[in-house]
User: What shape does this take?
Amino acid sequence: MAAPAPPRLSDAEWLVRPATQAVFSALASRGFAARAVGGAVRNTLLGRPVGDIDLATAAPPEEVIAAAKAAGLAAVPTGIAHGTITVIAEHVPYEVTTLREDVETHGRHATVAFTADWAADARRRDFTINALYCAADGEVFDPLEGYADLAQRRVRFIGDARARIREDYLRILRFFRFTAEYGEGPPDTDGLGACVAEREGLAILSAERVRQELLRLLAARRGPELVATMQGYGLATYVLPVAPRPHLLRRLADIEGALALTPDAVLRLGALAVEIPEDADRLRDRLRLSNEEHAELVLAAMRPPAIGPGAPESIARACLYAESATTYRQLVLIAWARSGDAPDDPLWRDRFTLPERWQPPRFPLSGADVMALGVPAGPRIGELLRALEAWWIAGDFAGDEAALRVRLGELARS
Assistant: This one.
C-alpha cells in the first residue's frame, strides 16, 4: 500500500512570511533551489508551534553568501566547514546548509561532502520524521516516507539504526527525546534495540551535548516515561552519575501538569537524581551545569521545615519570607512530589499559591535602631537583630514596629 502523501504547506505562516520568502528568492535568483527542512516542516504537519527555520540548498556555501549579499541580506559563516551559513532577513536568522552526505563518521564528528542529491542529504539524517522538506510554494518533499511515520507518531531511524547511532552517539538520547516529544505507544523496537546495543558510546560524548539533550528530554511531553524506559534498559547509568528515581520524576511531572505549569527541566532533574547535596555536585560536574542550575538542584536535597498542608501555614509563611517566591514554589513542588499525595490535592495547591495571597513583610529595624539604645558597634548588633527577627518570625509576623522596638529594648537589656 502506497504511503500517504503529505499535504502542501502553502498557508504556513512561517513560509509565507516575507523574510522567509526573501531567503528563498535570493537563492533562486542565482539558480539554486532551497527547501525548509526538519523541525519547521515536521511541526507544521503536526499543527505545533514552529521555532527556528532551517533551509537546505544545493548551493555551495560561497554561493549562499554571494546570493544573500546580492539580495541585501546579511550572511554569517557560522558553520561553513559543514556547509552552514546563517542568513539574516528582517532580523530573523535562517540557517542555510548545503546538501551533504557523510563520507566518514567518528561517533561524534563527521567528514562531509557537499552534493546536489536531495535523497542523499535525507539519508544521512537521523530520523525519518526529520527528513521532510518544504519548497517555497509549500510542496513537501518526502524521500524516505517520513510523513507516514509522522502520521503514526512513530520515531524511526533512517536505514540501519546501529549505523546511524555510530555516526553520532548523541542520537541515542535524541531517540528517547523525540519519542517522548512526538511518539505514541512504545518506542520503535529496532531503534530501542540499537540504543541498548550501542549504549557504551554515550561515554564519549561531551558533557555539554549530553546536558542539552537530557534537559530537553526531561521537559518533553512523555519525558518521565521515556526516562523510566532508559532506566529499565540500563542506559541511565551512562548519563547520570547517581542512582535515578523515576517515580519522583513522574510525581513532579504530574503535579506540574495539574497546575498547568511549564515543565522545569532542572527541577525535574533534581527530583530524578538528587537526594543529598553531593548528588547535585556530581551532576554539576558531569553535565557542566551553571551555578544557577546547580543551586536549583540543591533545592531537591533540602529538607525545609514542614511546609505541607499537615503543618500550620505560619511555617510556610516563614519559608516564603526566607526565600524568593520562585524558590518557595520549587520547594513546595519537591515536598509535594515526595509526599506521595495526589497531584490535584487542594491543600497542597493552597500551599503552592501562598505567594499569590500573602506578601512577606519587610523587617523594619536596622543596626541604627540598635545603636540608638546605646549598644556599641560590633557583633552584638547583628546578634540582637537576628534574635529580634527570629522572635518576629516565630510570632507569624504579628508584631508591628512599635512592638519590635519594645522587644528590642528587652533583648538589649538582657
